[in-house]
Amino acid sequence: MIKTLRNTEIKLGNGEKIDLKDFFDTYYPELISFASRYIVNPNECEDIVQDIFISFWEKQKCFSNMYAVKAFFYTSTRNSCLDYLKHSKVEEKYRTMNKNNEVVSESFLEEVIRNEAYSEIYSEINKLPEMGKKVLLLALRENSNEEIAKILNIAINTVKTHKVRAYKVLRKNLYDIFLFFFPFRKRFSINK
Question: Which of 12, 69, 133, 173 could make an S-S bridge to 128, C-beta 3.0–4.6 Å?
């Protein structure tokens, strides 16, 4: 599949272009992770996501913007997973766990938002200077400053400095994401 995607661009309705190979490299693992929330078998998840990419390429649909493309992929992945579950008689167990359709819809939306947020956060982490990136990734894996210092063979104060700098850059670069999520947090908060 990757060979057929080289130098392939798709033009969106708003004039934006998508390099299909870059899009595949970025979203293929995320969509497989998303599919794995429905289907336990990782090979089936990969097959489903690959089929969706092939379908997208063959149809050459005209999408208005990147959000429409992402919505197509997430919705197609979810629908394909549910079809798979239906054919393998697992859908009944799935429905039993999720009796209320509204809960399923909210769960789906929450997972899409969570995946998108993680994608943006890790994208910004990958832009950090190398040592700051290493320190922050180790910290996110719940390593203490002392453990990080030992692993990277640096001083504890150096670890603290890299963490402070990394968090400062992330706060600045991810400010818009937090503004986006603030209304959702407010809507779901409980008034005392």
Answer: 133
d(C-alpha 181, C-alpha 81), whole Å? 27
Q: Which CATH number does 1-97 carry?
A: 1.10.1740
How many residues can be counted in the chain? 192
- Local mean pLDDT, 10-residue blocks, the chain (192 residues): 56 80 88 90 92 82 81 91 78 60 65 80 86 88 91 92 89 74 44 34
| Type of residue at 120 | E
CB 113 within 8 A of CB 180: no
* 102-192 is classed CATH 3.30.1370.110: no
User: Helix, strand, coil proportions of the chain in percent (round to 5)?
Assistant: 75, 5, 20
Place of tokens 């409980």: 190
The domain limits of the chain are 1-97, 102-192
Q: What pTM does this model have?
A: 0.47
**Rounded Cα gap, residues 57 and 51, in angstroms:** 10
